[in-house]
Design a protein that fits this description.
Shape of chain A: globular
Largest interface: A-B, 21 and 30 residues
Protein name (chain A): Ferredoxin
Structural class of chain A: alpha+beta
Number of helices of chain A: 2
Strand content of chain B: 25-35%
Number of domains of chain A: 1
CATH class of the largest domain in chain B: Alpha Beta
Oligomer: heterodimer
Strand order of the largest sheet of chain A: 2-1-5-3-4
Number of strands of chain B: 26
Family (chain A): Belongs to the adrenodoxin/putidaredoxin family.
Distance between the termini of chain A: 31 Å
Mean pLDDT of chain B: 96
GO molecular function (chain A): 2 iron, 2 sulfur cluster binding; electron transfer activity; metal ion binding
CATH superfamily of the largest domain in chain B: FAD/NAD(P)-binding domain
Largest sheet of chain A: 5 strands, mixed
Low-confidence stretches of chain A: none
CATH architecture of chain A: Roll
CATH topology of the largest domain in chain B: FAD/NAD(P)-binding domain
Cofactor (chain A): [2Fe-2S] cluster
Number of helices of chain B: 10
InterPro entries (chain A): 2Fe-2S_ferredoxin-like_sf, 2Fe-2S_ferredoxin-type, Adrenodoxin-like, Beta-grasp_dom_sf
CATH architecture of the largest domain in chain B: 3-Layer(bba) Sandwich
């Protein structure tokens, strides 16, 4: 299972092991990162699960449109509900953006 | 038992109050009372991915069990608050337990309205508001071939879509002359009617249900006012909710269809706030009219308003309403409130299954319904927030992105 480093808004980081087959949003939620609001429950209808990821990956077209709702969008922005975790996500670094 | 903050209702709103209070560093005691036996869970999937079986229950939990313990939130499931004593600062449950509070947050939502006609209590007649409702429906489904869905609102339409996908024969009855009459403009209603019919739903408008017919125990059909008998082994009623506010009203809170709250979600009773589906509030996006908004957005955003107010950072509620509905391969996203619009402009071609309807009131954009048109949804939000005055002809031109029209605000 991939080990993912999550950096919260206060700058503190924590490495956690997440299940494959679930989404990054679910992994963040299940590990108590409550800064991720994920209001729509992961159906790509809001942008409240926005994260920065390293290495950067390409957002889908729908995600790209939703990310425009955030004032804190960067090149490595993703919606965490649209990333399904796989073994090769091991080492991913995730940062929670400032609150919109 | 005494709690500094007692939250009644363990849905999206109640859970979010507790989450946000802790996130903001609140260290007092928090308890979350819910009338269901479950941990707080997401309700929208009950008519979508949970009903279809695509998502197990664990995946629709708002937070895992360990979270509540780690955050020091006392969960009190399986308890319905029956009475509130505002002077004594206590609530009493139906089972006779008494809880004291410093601050009470009422987030009890509503109960699914049940069919009032004869036969409404037969086995096989369902509503879909709770996990138990969805489980009961799913458990019966394998033995069912014909279903009648009563109500052409979002719950009825989403349930119909899932039931069709499961291969059931579905008749959908709506008493108005169009589906979604309460929440959307006519063009959207017609599009969804066509879609459901194309998917094989026998959709009947202007259908008045007379009674539910059964064999004494189990439903066997639905009879309409004109005498038509529609055979069915299952009936699903999606006919709205009744806000769960009776204990508050009995305690003297101002209200009626919901409980009246101000911009900080305060009721007329001291130290009692109310949020979510049951909160009657003056909404900036409804011309300041007092409305109830039944949505996850409203529950979450009001929860944040309350958590901020209880942690010394009061900020009035002014969130823009948004909503979504998934049916078949159609993703509807709504921003703003279209009720009371005086003009509607179609943007795009419904036949292409990707279009938006932009609603105006007194020349300003007040809402958009976007079907498989996520860019219109995100860009249209700024038009709604800004109350933009746009040229309807420009809005109808899909070659012009909506963000280019925001300057007209």
């Amino acid at each position: 299972m991939p080990i993912i480093t999550v950096v919260s808004r206060d700058g503190t980081g924590r490495a956690v092991e997440m299940d494959t087959g679930t989404t990054l949003m679910e992994g963040l939620r299940d590990h108590g990162f409550d800064e991720v609001l994920a209001m729509c429950g992961g159906c790509c209808s809001c942008a409240t699960c926005h994260v920065y990821v390293e290495p950067a990956s390409t957002a889908t077209e729908e995600e790209d449109a939703l990310l425009a709702l955030s004032a804190h969008r960067r090149d490595n922005s993703r919606l965490s509900c649209q990333i399904t975790l796989a073994p090769d996500h091991d080492g991913l670094r995730v940062e929670i953006p400032p609150e919109d | 038992m005494q709690h500094d903050v007692l939250i009644v209702g363990a849905g999206h709103g109640g859970a979010q109050v507790a989450i946000t209070l802790r996130q903001r560093g609140y260290t007092g005691g928090i308890a979350l009372v819910g009338d269901e036996p479950e941990l707080p869970y997401e309700r929208p999937p009950l008519t979508k991915d949970y009903l279809s079986g695509a998502k197990p229950f664990e995946r629709i939990l708002i937070r895992p069990a360990a979270f509540w313990q780690a955050r020091g939130v006392t969960l009190l499931p399986g308890r319905r608050v029956a009475a509130v004593d505002a002077a004594a600062h206590t609530v009493t449950t139906a089972g006779g337990e008494v809880f004291g509070y410093g601050q009470l947050v009422w987030a009890a939502g509503g109960q699914a309205r049940r069919l009032a006609c004869a036969g409404g209590d037969l086995a096989g007649v369902h509503t879909v508001r709770t996990r138990a409702d969805a489980d009961a429906l799913r458990a019966e489904l394998p033995a069912v071939e014909r279903v009648v869905v009563i109500g052409g609102g979002y719950v009825g339409l989403e349930a119909a879509a899932v039931l069709r996908a499961a291969g059931k024969s579905v008749v959908l009855l709506e008493q108005a002359d169009r589906v979604l009459a309460r929440v959307a403009g006519e063009a959207l209603s017609r599009f969804y009617e066509d879609e459901h019919r194309a998917q094989g739903v026998d959709l009947r408008l202007g259908a008045q249900v007379k009674d539910i017919v059964g064999d004494g125990r189990q439903v066997t059909g639905v009879r309409l006012a004109d005498g038509t008998l529609i055979p069915a082994q299952m009936v699903v009623a999606g006919i709205g909710i009744t806000p769960a506010v009776q204990p508050l009203l009995a305690a003297g809170a101002e209200g009626g269809d919901g409980v009246v709250v101000d911009a900080f979600c305060r009721t007329s009773l001291p130290d009692i706030r109310a949020i979510g589906d049951c909160a009657l509030h003056a909404n900036a996006y409804a011309d300041g009219r007092r409305i109830r908004l039944e949505s996850v957005q409203n529950a979450n955003d009001m929860a944040i308003t309350v958590a901020k107010a209880l942690t010394g950072a009061a900020d009035p509620y002014h969130a823009v309403p948004w909503f979504w509905s998934n049916q078949y391969d159609l993703k509807l996203q709504t921003v703003g409130l279209s009720a009371g619009h005086d003009a509607a402009v179609l943007r795009g071609d419904p036949a292409a299954r990707s279009f938006s309807i932009v609603y105006f009131r007194a020349g300003r954009v007040v809402a958009l319904d976007c079907v498989n048109a996520i860019r219109d949804y995100t860009q249209g939000r700024a038009l709604v927030e800004g109350g933009a005055r746009c040229d309807p002809a420009a809005v109808a031109d899909i070659s012009v992105p909506l963000k280019d029209l925001a300057a007209g605000a």
